[in-house]
């Protein structure tokens, strides 16, 4: 099934982003590349927010966020309430992020995992479904923290 996927990275991950974007296109997905596109130093929050807002505006069904460790860009994406970004480094976490958390963005660390593991995580993520059920109320609280219990 073809998906619309937004992808963004900082300078530390631009080559992984480019390779993943090309690979996703070859698989038939519609890819929105939100940058960056070179090794010049940039601020990862700018690209994380860009990706989070693309998800919030429903410009893309899923997102792929990449920085050196994956940590900083995932924090930025998660500042957008409609975005649920999970940092993963192997396929099991990618699947559980979708199954249990209805994550719509997967974050990767370009300095932590290689391209083949990144591909395995991304393909697992986009091919997994949200289980719903007991997880639905919890996921709703991620978007609406005011609904949480003190």
From TrEMBL:
Q: What domain of life does the native source organism fall in?
A: Bacteria
Q: What is its EC number?
A: 5.3.1.6
Query: What are the UniProt keywords, alphabetically?
Result: Isomerase
SUPFAM superfamilies given in the database record: Ribose/Galactose isomerase RpiB/AlsB
| Enzyme class label | isomerase
Which Pfam families does the record match to this protein?
Answer: LacAB_rpiB (PF02502)
What family does the entry list? Answer: Belongs to the LacAB/RpiB family.
Which NCBIfam families does UniProt cross-reference here? PRK05571.1, rpiB, rpiB_lacA_lacB
Q: What is this protein called?
A: Ribose 5-phosphate isomerase B
- To which species is this protein native? Sphingomonas rustica
GN (gene name) = rpiB
